[in-house]
User: Fold histidine kinase from Oceanirhabdus seepicola.
Amino acid sequence: MKRNFVITITILLCIVVLLVIKTKEPKEMTIKSNTININQEIFTNEELKWINEHKNRDINVGVAQDYIPIEYIDKDGNPSGMGIEIIKLISELTGLRFKMYKNSAKETWDEILRSTSEKRIDILPAVAQTKNRLKYLEFSEHYIEMTQVILGHKDNQKLVNGIAEVNKKSFVVPRGYWVIDGILKENPNAEIIQVENMEEALKYVSNKKTDYTICETPVFTCYREEGTTKNIKIVGELKEKNKIHMAVRKEYSELIPIINKVIESINYNELYEKALIMPKNNLNEKKLIFIILILTLIVLILIYYRYTTFRKLVIAKKEAEDANRHKTSLMTNISHDLRTPITVIMGYAQAIIDGNVKSEEDKEKYIRRIYEKTKYLNELVDDFFLLSRLEDGKLILVKEEVNINNFVKSIVEDTAFKAEPQNIELSLKLDEKVEIYKKVDRIKLYRAIENIIINAVKYTEENGSIEISTVLEDDKVKISIKDNGIGIQKEDITHIFDRYYKGKNARKESIGLGLYIAKEIIHKHNGEIWLESEYKKGSTFYILI
Ligand code: ADP
Assistant:
């Protein structure tokens, strides 16, 4: 139970972790518009031919993760931003199929550029033109031009007039960001620190780890809305504006005039607005939910452990008390059961010692009684010994292969003398079709069957009859002991195998242990024991072993 609980908690934790990781991962994006509207008038025949030839293949798109609002992955893992809106438009007008290239869960811009130069990515929706990139990319017209600002910590930055003015200061920029070349061109002394993305760069400045970063105004505005730029202010402006283009690798150069026609046809304001239906970066929210979940789970685990420990203590205490009470009542029972025969023995012995028994014949009678009572005492002590072993769970079976028919026969022969004084007929009906062999503890099983046969004798009137039979049922043997004695009353039947239970018909010397011991021994052999009885007509006890 405890183990299961721990496993469940661990699985839950894993699911939560996986969910959090999963939501961060970009989804597969296939852009294929439902409303394809190929405009024959915009495109030339050659362009339409190229479009038709390339319609059924995926064009891999490299998407920057957090260049908001130009290009980013939104909170649901979908690629978004102005560049993506243009891609959607191209797909709508041409029927071309675009697919987001996904190499790792969170790709850096640097990795995207590398994948493009290595021909895994075919098109970049938002990219600035640099000398180096011209080696492997063809650029469209630019579709947005953005002012670039220098950002510094709000506490201690003077206004600067361009990068050249900033002397010996450190700049933090996303890896692969084109502005690195620009910074170094204008200020070769600048120290450049490259980080994974814009958000990280802003955090560096916010925490005063570096002096400056450079960012386009729309991008800065978006991050400001999210609260990432709390401690940051604009301290200067770059002379050059950042022009954003679409770019394809050389093999797709025919796509450039097509893209240019789409760019020409767009309504810039509409596009900007669409791109700015911005996701709130709910990463912090996710983190918070995650932490709350973890804390709740930890609290639950702690409560559970406290509760189980407490419960265990209560149960242990109760068990100890029960055991004590049980032992005391057992001792009382045992002392009482022993006292009766001992008193009788002492009485007879005293009479002989005192010389009250005169004739030899009486003396012999007294001694015989003493002997019988001592024998009975001996049997009682045996029962108590077995009982204590059973109570402690220490009854060990020593099994051996036994021929059941011969075994039952020997028990009947050994007990026959008990039936003689009342002239009770003991008969055997053995299933002798096959030899029945079973692995049993000979001594203990003897005791169990003997108890039942002796009971049958005890509770059968003079001249009655008892039939003991065996029958093979599948791979088990059923032993029945049937008497036509006084029978058992209905209300006694359900309790008859209980420890110390005596029926309403119980004889004077009855102590209620025989059937309990027999039942325990049979159960230890993985067997079954039950009875059928009709009051005043007789009883049949069954053992299946
Ligand atoms: P004990 O024989 O010491 O009384 P048992 O556990 O052997 O203890 O039997 C419990 C009770 O079951 C007896 O007191 C008696 O009432 C009833 N009983 C057992 N065997 C028979 C039987 N063959 N016929 C009628 N009653 C029986």
Residues 283-353 form the longest helix (71 residues). The pocket of adenosine-5'-diphosphate is lined by residues 451, 455-456, 459, 483, 485-488, 496, 501-503, 505-506, 510-516, 539 (CB under 6 Å).
